[in-house]
Amino acid sequence: MLSSRAKKALIEWKPITERLMYARFHTSTIKISIITVYAPTNDATDETKESFIEQLDRVIAGTPKHDILLVMGDFNAKVGMNNDGHENIMGRHGIGRRNENGGNLLDICQRNNLVITGTIFPHKDKHKVTWISPNKKTENQIDHILVTRQHRTSILDTRAMRGADIGSDHELLKCKLRIKLKKYKIVTDTSRKRFDTTKLQCPEIRKAFSIELKNRFQLLDELEDIETFWEGITKCYKETATNTLGFKERGQKPWISNESWKLVDERRQLKERTNSSRSERVKNNLHAKYSDKDKEVKKSMRNDKRQWTDNLIEEAEKAASNGMMKTVYEVTRTICNEKQKPPQVIKDKSGNPLSSHDEKLKRWKEHFQEVLNKPEPEIPFNINLNYEIEERGIDTGPITKEEISKALKRLKNGTSGGIGGITAEILKADSITTTKYLHKLYNMIWIGDKIPKDWNKGVIVKIVKKGDRTCCDNYRGITLLSVPSKVFTKIIIQRIQEGIDEELRQEQAGFRRGKSTTEQLFTLRNIIEQCSEWNAPLYINFVAFKRRLTPSTGKAYGPS
Predict the structure, then answer these.
(1) Which of 278, 283, 295, 538 is most buried when burial is the number of CB atoms within 10 A of its CB?
(2) Separation in Å, CA 516 to CA 30, 156, 212, 350, 410
(3) Is the pTM of this model over 0.85?
(4) CB atoms within 10 A of CB 503
(5) 243-263 average pLDDT score
(6) CATH homologous superfamily of 4-177
């Protein structure tokens, strides 16, 4: 579990065994390598302990030498207070007596130049305890954070945080470092943030959006350069949407009620009272109350989730009765909550795993370059143009406002805004103003024979198909383009369709308005049934295209 800031600083991570994991982070000055451990208990066999120690030594030896190394987790080791002979790896501020695992931990630290930070800083015993037995009578310091000796001075403090309400017999162990995390080579693309377009359903917000948009567009009336005019349009839409709509945010779980949150606060207060109590009798009573309150919290949340699910089911039933299938699918996905997380490791062409961000990005770029591009043909195809080309009835005049208005109406809601972040809902919020300024932009493009640079860019989103999710060949890419550019291409495609529709055969179906493939499929099915009934031979030629579109010979790049 990582915070959003720590996720951005993550360079790579590797699961070593069921007891060891390695992660590496980027900071403003130096990189940090972290190894999390779950050591065998003191009663485990010697073979199990030796195997764990050997694995841990190998992982430590494989970490970059210039990194700050932190080894942390449940070592099941008590090192005690006596540091005679081990002054360079521990202090005198431990608790309890050293056990066998504690001696093994000291040997590990001695071999790898590590320091046990929890024994260095003076604290009260209650701030050193990291584990409390279920009967609340036995307390030990068995969780530790180790750091390389050369970076000992970077550690400011290490102590147990007793107030953390995590429902565990282990206390949260906190270590302060004099290091500031920094995002690792990933520039946040603000245009990918989604505007909260659901607010446009409110008439007051929609009116405020329209008024502010018109006021901003007035500054663009005298611009004549295509690139400058397009940048002005994008800026007007994004600033207006930011001020009036805001962005969608991931909040708390929607099914938790306010009553349940109140119970959580009450449970947290009991935890604080328990930690601050000095009387053993009062502490036992508070432990019992905390246990009862914890059961009450879980019961309340189960009821909340059950009620939330019932409400969603009723919403889906109403949507289905009204023919709103999109709402039905959204509710189904919400209830199922089947969100597949992308794999943290992918394979190269040879099947070797890649875990670092740079390696994975390079592999995805290589994959999509191969999929979307093909080499120039060795023998170019000669097209004989020594004949007159019959002109079709395709309109080549300037784009009209009526065409833009019809294209806007055909846009689907709920789709991505692409590079610019301008979605269909934002364009439709004030269709009159949108039509007016897109009309000027499109005719500048039509006359100048030049499009904005943003229209040549797209964001490739990878979607898994089936099979091994670490193999790039099992993904397909979807390119997210600018929505205003889609409106422009819809107008051109509509003109072409109207011009060539009369030239197509009557039998041609699919991708034509009013001519689906239903009749062809019905005819094919009848042929198959008749041949099967009369035991007659039948040959069917089925062509399976590897890709829906023919790849170009230009350059394409992987996901950004």
Answers:
(1) 283
(2) 61, 71, 44, 44, 19
(3) no
(4) 10
(5) 80
(6) Endonuclease/exonuclease/phosphatase (3.60.10.10)
